[in-house]
């Protein structure tokens, strides 16, 4: 009994034999083959749950694919000749994942109304200029990825995706605005708009009660909407590489203003003052999501904040702490570093690391502690101040 057939990378495989005898087959991998079509008798694979056809030259799928009643995952990544999908796709009642990223000639989608189990839909790097209004029928959809598409707008019906948790629109350079219905996505946690270079404004945000991650880096935003203060769950806000000149009282525990060179002195002062307040709140509460007790800020600047009590040049600092400092009143450390413009370029996603060692006069206890600031910029346009609070459990 064959349960899985893996033919990945068989680059000269141009056709398949009859499939009707593989009634127990659950997984079929045909990625990177030379197949230009799928035989119609694929309908006989009544137990098939996963079909992977990525990186193949096929131009279309047979309409019989809609008869794969057990299919859960369909992968068609980087099928660059694929221009459309058969309408029978909507008959796949059990389909949970549809991956079409990199199908650069895919210009339209078939009806979606029957895909009642679909949880993940990847449409990155396609030629779609619009999303069909019947996307509203995808009541189970939790992830929608539309990055690197030429679309100029989203349908207002997107607000009806009641289960949506993550929405990715990275580098949609024609996108100028989002529909107001976005605020109806009560379960949305992540909105990724980085690189949407023509996005000049945001819709109302007040209904996004579950919102945690907001990526606005590389957009054309010049100001933050006032109702951002309503986002009580916001933990991560990226604003680097934007023309923003001033900031409201911030919410969130990770604020990235790297390369925001238009921030004036007052705006930087506001960020610093707000950061101090947020650190105090976080330290006192000692609970912001039980596992997450860190606060990170990066912005243009070349001075260490005056409220930091211990500083020095170079990469090494030695200091002494008062007796009984590490008691139940201790709340952690604030680390700070100045990154000069002439500093070496960081590796992508490389961390800035502070490694600390603590021991008492009698040598009874030594604690080695490492804290990291993940600096996401490969290049900087001026000196930068990076500082972060760490309330790691190792101290408590």
Provide an overview of this structure.
This protein is mainly beta and 396 residues long. The protein folds into 2 domains: 1-128, Leucine-rich repeat, LRR (right-handed beta-alpha superhelix); 235-395, no CATH class. It contains 1 helix and 17 strands. The chain has one helix at 265-285; strands spanning 4-6, 27-29, 50-52, 73-75, 97-99, 120-122, 143-145, 166-168, 190-192, 213-215, 236-238, 254-256, 294-300, 333-339, 351-359, 366-374, 384-390. A 15-stranded mixed sheet has the order 1-2-3-4-5-6-7-8-9-10-11-12-13-17-14, covered by helices on one side. β15 and β16 form a beta hairpin. The chain starts with a strand and ends in a 6-residue tail after the last strand.
Topology:
Blueprint: E1 4-6, E2 27-29, E3 50-52, E4 73-75, E5 97-99, E6 120-122, E7 143-145, E8 166-168, E9 190-192, E10 213-215, E11 236-238, E12 254-256, H1 265-285, E13 294-300, E14 333-339, E15 351-359, E16 366-374, E17 384-390
Parallel strand pairs: 1-2, 2-3, 3-4, 4-5, 5-6, 6-7, 7-8, 8-9, 9-10, 10-11, 11-12, 12-13
Antiparallel strand pairs: 13-17, 14-17, 15-16
Key traits:
396 residues, mainly beta, Leucine-rich repeat, LRR (right-handed beta-alpha superhelix), 2 domains, 15-stranded mixed sheet, two-stranded antiparallel sheet, 1 helix, 17 strands, 19% strand, C-JID, LRR_domain-containing, leucine-rich repeat, repeat, Leu-rich_rpt_typical-subtyp
